[in-house]
Amino acid sequence: MEDAARRLLEGDQRTLSRMITYLERGDPQAAGVLKAIDPHTGNAYIVGITGPPGAGKSTLVDRLTELLRSKEMSVGIIGVDPTSPFTGGALLGDRVRMQKHYLDSGVFIRSVATRGQTGGLPRMVRGTTRLLDASGVDVILVETVGVGQTELGVLEVADTVLVALMPESGDAIQALKAGIMEIADIYLVNKADREGANQMATTITAMLQLGEAKPGWSPPVMLTTAQTGQGIDEVWQKIQEHRQYLTDTLELAKRRGSHRQKEFLETVQEEVARRVNSRVEQDPNLIATLEQVANKESEPYSAAMEFLDSSGLDADWTV
Amino acid sequence: MEDAARRLLEGDQRTLSRMITYLERGDPQAAGVLKAIDPHTGNAYIVGITGPPGAGKSTLVDRLTELLRSKEMSVGIIGVDPTSPFTGGALLGDRVRMQKHYLDSGVFIRSVATRGQTGGLPRMVRGTTRLLDASGVDVILVETVGVGQTELGVLEVADTVLVALMPESGDAIQALKAGIMEIADIYLVNKADREGANQMATTITAMLQLGEAKPGWSPPVMLTTAQTGQGIDEVWQKIQEHRQYLTDTLELAKRRGSHRQKEFLETVQEEVARRVNSRVEQDPNLIATLEQVANKESEPYSAAMEFLDSSGLDADWTV
What we know:
The structure is a homodimer. By secondary structure, chain A is of the alpha/beta class. Chain A has 2 domains: 1-38, no CATH class; 41-249, P-loop containing nucleotide triphosphate hydrolases (Rossmann fold), CATH 3.40.50.300. Chain A is 51% helix and 12% strand. Chain A has 14 helices and 7 strands. The first copy, chain A, has helices at residues 3-9, 13-25, 28-37, 57-70, 90-95, 99-102, 121-134, 149-154, 170-177, 197-210, 232-248, 251-279, 284-294, 300-310, and strands at residues 45-50, 75-81, 107-113, 139-144, 160-165, 186-189, 221-223. In chain A, strands 3-2-4-1-5-6-7 form a 7-stranded parallel β-sheet, with helices on both faces. In chain A, helix 10 links the parallel strand 6 and strand 7. Chain A starts with a helix and ends in a 9-residue tail after the last helix. The interface between A and B is large, with 86 and 86 residues.
C-alpha cells in the first residue's frame, strides 16, 4: 500500500490535509490513495446540514460537535462555502465561531469553496468524506447553504440530511416547494425561542402530509435552539434512529451504493470536460473549428454536435 | 431554408416561443434552426443585468424597457430564475410587475429556470439570445440574480454587463470581492434616494481604483432610482457609449467570438455528459462497472479514470 494511504489510515491529520488538497488540484496521487483506502471506509456516519442563511446552521454544527466530543467521538466538519458572489464569505465568517474546536485534535475542519469549481464540488466533498472516513473519524458533518443545484448535490453524500429552518421565514415555504422535501430526513425549526416556531413546525408538518409520503421513514419536524443547546440531544438521538432505520431496512448500503455510482458518473463527465479543454490548444481540428465558430463560419450548437459525431464519441459510441 | 427558420426571421413570435422550447428540450430541430439563422444574427445588442436580491433589477429592466419602447425599439427580456431552493420564485414574483409589457408585441419576455439544468443554463440563454436576435429584436436584456457561478456564466452572453447594487448593502462589498468586478462594465447604485447612496458609490469607485485597471474602458459608477425612473436615460446613454467603445476598438467582435467559442465548448461537454448517461442502461461494460462501484469492488474516482482510459477518450484522444 502507498505510504500516504497507510499514514492516512493511522489517522495522521497532516496526510489527511495534504490528500484533500491533492484531490482539489486533481493530482493523480489522490486517485491512488482513494483506491487504496476504499476497502477501509464506511465506518464514519455522514450527516448533511442545509438551510437558508441565518437559520443557524453553523451553531447547530457547533453544538452537535460539542455533544459528539462529550461522547468521545471524533468529528469531521466539511463547510461548503456558497457560490454566490453576493453571499460569499458568510459561511467563512461563521466558521470563526468554531475556533475553539480548532485546538481539539478530535475535530477536523475543512472548508470547500465552490468558486471556480461548480462542477467538481459534489465529487470533491464525496472524496473528502472518504478520506476523513479512512482516517478514523466517527461522524462527518457536511454543512452547506444550499444555494443551488450544485450545493444540493453535495447533500447526496450524506446518510442523514437535516434541513434547518427558522420561524417567520417565508423562504422556508419556498424551500419546501423547491425540492428540499425530496432530500430532507429530519427538519429542524431552529431559533425555536422566537415567536412563530410552533406555527412554523405545524405548517411544515402539514406540508409534508400534503406531499407524497415516502414509504418507511417519515421526516420528523423538531424544535431546536442551537444558541442555548436546547433540543440538540434529541436531534442526535433522532439521527441515530434514522441510522438504525436505514441499517435495518438495508437502505444505508443502497443509499451509499447509489452515491458512489453518482460520483463515478460525475467524475467521468468532469474528466471528459477536462480532456476536451486540454485539447483546445493542441488539436488542430479543434483549433480550426473554434476559429470558424468565432468567425461565424460555423454556428456553435450545431458545430458542437458535428464535432462529437466525427469524434470517437458518436451516437454509437461504446466502451 | 427550413420553414421554421424563415418564419423566425420574419419575426413570428409563436415560432420564436416554440424554438426556445425545443432548445430547452434538446430537440434536434433547434440545432437545425440555429444553424440556418446564424448568418442573420448579430444585430441585437445584449445587455446583462445582475445584482443581489432586492437591488431592484426587475424595476431597472422595466424602466429600460419603457425607455427603449418610447424610442420605437423592440426588446427581448430573458429572466434567469435562480437555482436556490431558498430564494426560488423571487424573480418570478418580480416578473408580475412586468405584466404591462406582456400586452406589447414589441416586447418578448421569457423566463429560463435553472432548476434541474444547472449545466445547460448558459448555453440555453445563449441560444435564446440568438433566436431573439434573428427574430429582429433590437435590444436583449438578460436579468439574473447571479447566485452562483452558473448564473455568472450566463452574463458571458452579454455585450454590456450592468451590476446593480443598493445603498447600505454589506453584500455589495462581498460581491465586488468575489468576482463581479471582472465582469461589470457599468455599476449602478440603485435606490439612490436612500441614505448612503453617495457613500456607496464612492466606496465602489475607490475599490475599482484599488483593483487592477482594465486597459481601455473604466467601468463608471452611476446613481439610479429605478422606482421613479431617475437616472435611466443616463444609463442607456452609457450603454451606448460602451457599445461605441467596443465597436471602435473591435472589442465587440472579439467578445462575441469568444462567447461563441465558449458556447461550443460547453455544448460539447454537456452533450458528452448526456451521451455517457444515455449509455448507463445500455452499455454492458458500463453497467458492470457501476455495479462494482456500488458494491465497493471498485473505488469511484479511480474507476472513472480507468473507464475513460479504456474508452476512446484516453489521454491521446484526438479528433
